[in-house]
User: Which sequence fits this backbone?
């Protein structure tokens, strides 16, 4: 529900005159911490110098000493409040413009000393870049009061054009700052959404691959259970019924898995009929990377007997993504791939040296491959680590347990 225009204008006027201020979103000079250390003492020294210059100017107007000190204080006070309380600084400026007008030199276009004039313009520019539009309109109107009242009619047009230009420029600066802030927030939100979507997509892909692996073994169980009565000769009827029940349970499990896979598979994804790769396919993949210009060394020790297919698939995908990342982020680097089977887990490591082309530093928002590798290792109950190494290189390492328990928790 929109507010009535008169009520909205009244609320904006109250905010302008007595309302809360518009402090900066972050400390001034936050981008330059070294400069920020010297900003306060340098600023205080500048205010002291301006106070002395203003005091000399006011004394030259033959004002009493107390009045000259008061006018000099009112002149520099807005500058002290400006960095953190710009609206309050503007209020002090209006008071100074209305009061500090006595004994001006004859023939001067305005009755204020030069420090007050320049300081007022600075305050007005900063306020215009901080406040919202309704408050800005009232700031402009109220600032015109001492101008119309105390400046000669011959100079009204030039002064008003200058004030209007400052107000418009400050408003444009504020709009640009808010737009950049909103764009940064939207970019961060988009990056988080991309990372979340990458995790979900990788988990879906892992689920589909695990379905293919498990479906193969479940099909073998069903076939063996169905053919067992014929292969084993005469069997008692309870044994035949038991084999039939095993085969039926395996078929039902396959049906349920196909239903779940239908939920996970996107409409655009076609059926995946190619065999899933494993440890035996690592040499071929490394050889393809060498032909593509990547200097790869493979150290693959003989795997232990009965390495589970999901472990071999995960190791293959991790090496595949590690080689892709090395080619993408460290052009010209030497890559070493190590696959070392242990008594309970398979250790996989992909390490590259510092590249001669692009930097090995992983940019923000480009870590979806690392996310996928981590998801694969964690889905098997393993561990995953990635980070820079000495000498400027980068390495990823995973422990993939054979039984799905080693490294979990």
Assistant:
């Amino acid at each position: 529900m929109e507010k009535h225009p008169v009520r909205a204008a009244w609320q904006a006027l109250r905010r302008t005159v007595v309302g809360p201020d518009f402090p900066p979103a972050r400390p001034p000079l936050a981008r330059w911490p070294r400069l920020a250390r010297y900003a306060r003492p340098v600023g205080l020294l500048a205010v002291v110098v301006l106070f002395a210059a203003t005091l000399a100017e006011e004394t030259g107007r033959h004002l009493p000493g107390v009045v000259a000190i008061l006018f000099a204080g009112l002149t520099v006070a807005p500058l002290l409040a400006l960095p953190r309380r710009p609206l309050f600084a503007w209020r002090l400026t209006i008071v100074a413009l209305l009061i500090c007008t006595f004994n001006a030199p004859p023939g001067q276009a305005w009755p204020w000393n030069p420090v007050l004039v320049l300081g007022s313009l600075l305050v007005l520019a900063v306020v215009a870049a901080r406040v919202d539009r309704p408050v800005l309109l009232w700031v402009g109107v109220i600032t015109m009061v001492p101008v119309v009242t105390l400046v000669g009619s011959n100079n009204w047009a030039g002064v008003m054009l200058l004030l209007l230009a400052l107000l418009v420029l400050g408003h444009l600066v504020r709009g640009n700052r808010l737009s950049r802030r909103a764009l940064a927030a939207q970019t961060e939100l988009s990056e988080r959404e991309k990372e979340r979507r990458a995790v979900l997509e990788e988990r879906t892909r892992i689920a589909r691959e695990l379905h293919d692996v498990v479906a193969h073994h479940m099909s073998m169980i069903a076939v063996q259970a169905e053919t067992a009565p014929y292969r084993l000769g005469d069997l008692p009827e309870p044994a035949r019924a038991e084999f039939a029940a095993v085969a039926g349970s395996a078929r039902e499990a396959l049906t349920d898995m196909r239903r779940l896979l239908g939920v996970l598979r996107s409409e655009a994804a076609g059926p995946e009929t190619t065999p899933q790769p494993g440890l035996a396919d690592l040499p071929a993949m490394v050889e393809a990377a060498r032909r593509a210009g990547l200097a790869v060394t493979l150290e693959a020790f003989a795997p232990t007997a009965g390495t589970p297919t999901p472990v071999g698939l995960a190791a293959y995908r991790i090496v595949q993504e590690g080689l892709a990342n090395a080619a993408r982020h460290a052009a010209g680097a030497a890559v070493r791939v190590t696959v070392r089977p242990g008594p309970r887990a398979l250790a996989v490591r992909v390490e590259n040296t510092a590249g001669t082309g692009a930097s090995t530093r992983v940019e923000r928002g480009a870590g979806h491959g690392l996310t996928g590798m981590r998801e694969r290792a964690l889905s098997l109950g393993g561990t995953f680590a990635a980070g820079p190494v000495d000498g400027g290189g980068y390495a990823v390492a995973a422990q993939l347990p054979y039984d799905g328990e080693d490294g979990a928790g």
In short: The chain is about 60% helix and 10% strand. Residues 358-366, 405-409 have pLDDT under 50 and may be disordered. Residues 156-231 form the longest helix (76 residues).
